[in-house]
Design brief:
- This is TRAP transporter large permease protein.
- The structure is a single chain.
- This protein is mostly helical.
- The protein has one domain.
- The chain has helices spanning 2-15, 20-34, 41-50, 57-70, 73-85, 91-107, 110-127, 132-143, 153-162, 166-194, 206-232, 237-254, 260-293, 296-307, 310-325, 331-348, 353-367, 375-384, 388-411, 414-422.
- It is globular, with a radius of gyration of 22 Å.
């Protein structure tokens, strides 16, 4: 009964409107006090949890993506991809998806990816006759690639919690990320060919393609340098984030697309987002310490061992739980609350923690495009200035496709595991 009481107390705190970080910290502190343990446990534990070299990558990746966002890199990237595929059926939509995928390989942030590409793609797709719900759904879903395709901030945090290799987690996210882009792309082409009045853009000349590609080339090289350096062992993910931030600043300054005020706003936005993430990390660490003292992970593991029929049953139940709580919690909170509880059972069932990390992130991607707290929905709504119901209606097919990909990852785990263990 204790797990039920704790979950109920957490839900009540969240329903009061208390921020997630403070709800977790308050409940965790209360549980430690009720256990009769000294509060000195909390600061001692917190210092160790935040004093982690890997976590330095979070603010640096955020700074890099915000510099690129303020520097208009999304515009150059979209135009370059559009010049190559815009004349296809559904080509503007495909260009938006590919731009999301490329920018995801730089930013590590879903919201930034959606905002960067959406700002450019929404007006262009609207002008070409794409249905508003389809346009907004595509871009909201395309933005979710930012937390799956490496470098991914949620995968970094998962690696810290699970004590797994960040490099292997990054490699593991490549296959599912490409698979998602492929499925989304096929749907986009088929929708344009058979179900809409969307017009393709005129075929670009070779000179136009060359000019657009050269303009976007530094951004692509940025992704190549960061990811190539990580996989080649030249530098760690944290070092890659610092190199990426420096390169992003150099690119935008060289192109004269970043003003001093834009840079200050990028720094301010990065500090604000980092503060929110780290506060949630702190609150989740206190809560995690408390539930460990109450042996909640062991009790959950025992419940699964006793009442759930094997690995398949565990995956199905965990998926349903994550899809449900994703309606009310944002992705980072889900990650920090649920991973410490579920990880002992994952290891006990013999599931690969690298595979589970990617599968978990794919499911919390869905939380980014499901109301009432799907952040990507509100980002795209703000860009397009359309009612939220239009965006929600547009993401429904993409949610179904993401569930289909999740099923494929369960049936064929090598989609996730082949690269990290063969490269």
């Amino acid at each position: 009964m204790i797990p039920i009481y704790i979950v109920s107390a957490l839900v009540l705190l969240l329903l009061t409107g208390l921020p997630v970080a403070f709800a977790l910290a308050a409940l965790g502190t209360g549980l430690i006090v009720l256990k009769g343990l000294p509060l000195a446990l909390i600061p001692t534990n917190l210092f160790g949890s935040l004093n982690d070299f890997v976590l330095l990558a979070v603010p640096l990746f955020l700074l890099m993506s915000n510099i690129l966002l303020k520097g208009g890199v999304g515009r150059d990237l979209f135009r370059a991809v559009q010049s190559w595929v815009g004349h296809w059926p559904g080509g503007i939509g495909v260009a938006a998806l590919l731009s999301c995928g490329i920018f995801s390989a730089i930013s590590g942030s879903s919201v930034t990816t959606a905002a960067t590409v959406g700002t450019v793609a929404v007006p262009e797709m609207t002008k070409r006759g794409y249905k508003p719900s389809f346009t907004l759904g595509l871009l909201a879903a395309g933005g979710t690639l930012g937390i799956l395709i490496p470098p991914s901030i949620p995968l970094i945090v998962y690696g810290v919690i699970a004590e797994e290799s960040i490099g292997k987690l990054f490699l593991a996210g490549v296959g599912p990320g490409i698979l998602l882009i492929t499925v989304f792309g096929l749907y986009t082409v088929l929708s344009a060919a058979f179900g809409g009045n969307a017009a393709a853009s005129p075929r670009a000349s070779w000179s136009e393609r060359t000019e657009a590609t050269l303009r976007a080339l530094p951004t692509v090289l940025l992704a190549v340098v960061m990811l190539g350096g990580i996989y080649a062992g030249a530098f760690t993910p944290t070092e890659a984030s610092a190199i990426g931030a420096a390169m992003a600043l150099a690119i935008t300054v060289a192109q004269r697309s970043l003003s001093w005020s834009d840079f200050l706003r990028a720094v301010k936005d990065s500090v604000q987002t980092t503060t929110v993430i780290f506060l949630i990390v702190v609150g989740a660490k206190i809560f995690g310490q408390a539930i460990t003292l109450y042996q909640i992970p062991q009790q959950v593991a025992h419940i699964f061992d006793t009442h759930v029929p094997g690995t398949v049953g565990f995956i199905v139940i965990v998926s349903l739980i994550l899809l449900f709580i994703g309606l009310f919690l944002e992705s980072m909170s889900m990650l920090l609350i649920m991973v410490p509880v579920l990880l002992p059972t994952v290891l006990g069932l013999g599931l690969d923690p690298i595979w589970f990390g990617v599968y978990f992130v794919l499911l919390i991607e869905i939380a980014l495009i499901t109301p009432p707290v799907g952040l990507n929905l509100f980002v795209i709504q703000a860009i397009a200035n359309k009612p939220l119901v239009v965006v929600v209606r547009g993401v429904v097919p993409f949610v179904l496709m993401m569930l289909f990909v999740a099923a494929l990852l369960s049936l064929f785990p090598q989609i996730v595991l082949w690269l990290p263990f063969h490269l």
